[in-house]
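Subject: for your reference before the review

Hello V.,

The reviewers asked for a structural picture of the protein, and I figured it would be easier to keep everything in one thread rather than splitting it across files. Below is the amino acid sequence we used in the manuscript, unchanged from the supplementary table.
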Amino acid sequence: MEFETFESVWDALCDTPEEAANMKARAELMLNICERVKAWDLTQEDAAKRLRLTRPRLNDLLRSKIDKFSLDDLVGMAATAGLRVEVRVFD
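And here is what came back from the structure prediction:
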């Protein structure tokens, strides 16, 4: 039996390197936004208002439903949450 090793779980799950890169970026943004929201120590209703989301949409974010959020959505939410988004490209 052969085993294949991957740099990340996204590399293993995604069909293309482009899709894996997008998923890695989305996962990183979701993690940071969730940490910021939890640090606010607000009710979901108040946190949703602060992010300009509905409470069910915030709940999807907090439950890591990554398939429901585009990279654009998450960049906008990060900015609204007061996070600075920086894109870095590595060789």
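For the response letter, the relevant points are probably these. The first helix runs from residue 9 to 13. The two ends are 32 Å apart (CA to CA).

Happy to draft the paragraph if you're swamped.

O.
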